[in-house]
Fold:
Amino acid sequence: MRVIVVWQGGGAMGAYAAGVWRELAPCLQARGARLVGVAGASIGAINAAVIARHHADADWGVAALEAFWRERLATPSWPFTGALAWLPPWSELARSWDGLLTGLLIGNRGLYQALPLNWNPLAGLQRLHRPLLDRSRMLATLQQTVGALQSEPGAPWLGVAASDLLSGELHVFGTDQGEITPQHLAASAAIPLFFEPVEIDGRLLWDGDMIRRSMLPAVIQRVAAREAPSTPADPLVCISIELMPREAAHAPLSGAAIMARVAQLQQAGKLHADEAPAPLPGGWRALHLARGPLPNDGVSNQFDYSPHRIEQLIAQGSQEAHQAWAQWTGEHVEAPSAEPSAEPPAARSARRRLAVEAGPGAGDAEAPSAASSTSASPAEPSAADPVAEAVREVLGTGQPSQPLTPPQISGAADGMVGGTVH
Structure:
C-alpha cells in the first residue's frame, strides 16, 4: 500500500504526533507500505518535515521525531504557581498553568522567546510588526534539524499549508514545485499576534490552520497526480491526524481556557475525509484519528511545552493510534506500555474519539489479515468492540453481513454519543 500522512497544527499538542508515529510507522512497515507523502499545517508541517528528512531511516523517522520533541522542544516550566504545583488536588492544574505561563511569558528553548517590550498596549497599534514572540530560535532549530527539503527519488512528497493574510486563500507549498525551507515552515506556524507574518513570493503568510478551509483536498489531489491509479494490491491510503478535540473534558472556566475551546471548535473535523473531493478518489482508503481531550487541555493548550505535558501527549498518541489501527485493520497488536498519567484508563476510554472511514468500494474487498502486506479495507468490527456496537445500533441489526459504505460508516461514527467511543 502507498500511504500519505496529514498532520493538523496545535502548538505543543503536536507532541501527540510523535506517539502516533511511534505506533503507526512499524505497523505500516510490517505491511510493506511505502510512504509517498507527508503534509501538515503549523506544528503539523514541522512534524511532517522531520519525518520527510528522516524517511530513509530504518524506523521512518520515529526516533528522530521523538528526539525532536524531547530534546529540542520540551522546556522546563518556571514555578509561577509555587507550592500549588506539589499540593493535590491542585498539582496537575497548577503544573498546567506553569507550563502555559512559561510558554507565553518566557518562551520555548527551540522555537521562540518572548518580547516583553511588545506586550505594552501601545505596541498593539503596530502589532503586525511588533509580535509578542520572536521566532529566531525556530529558524535556527529548523535549519539544524530539517534544512531545505526538495523532491528526490524515493522521497515522500512534502506539503506545507499557509494562509494568505490578504486574500484569505490557503496555499499548499510542495516539494513537487520547489524547495521547502525553514521559511516555509515558519510561515505555516506564524500564529497571528504571536508571530510576524512571513513573506514568500510576494505574499504575506500566516499559520496554515488559521482558516477553516481544509488542506486535505489539495493534498490528495497533489499526491494523486504523482501516483499511479490505485489497485486492490496497491491501494492509496490517507491517514489524517487531528490534534484539536471536538469534545471537552469539562466546561472551560478561565479566559485562556475559553479561547482554547473556541479554537478547538473552529478547527475540529478539518481533516476528516468528508472534506476531501466527493468522496475520496476511486481506490483510496482513509483512516482518521482525532485526539481525545485531556483534563487540563484548556489551560495547557498550545503553549505548555513542559516535559511532563510532552510525555503525556506522546503516550496518549501512542495509545490512541494503537486503538485506531486495531479497529481499522482488525489486527491484534500488542498494546503500547506507556499511558497518559493525568487521566485514568476508564476516563480516557470514555472520552476517546475515533472515526474510521473507507474509500469507495471498500466493502467489496476482503478484510486484511495480520499476515497481509496490503490493506484493502477496514475489517468488519467484532461483536465485543464498543465501536461495533455503536455501528450496529445506528445501522440496525438486520444487516450485519452487508458491506458498510463510507456514508454509513461516517454516519455511524457521528451517531455515537458526541462522536465518542464508549
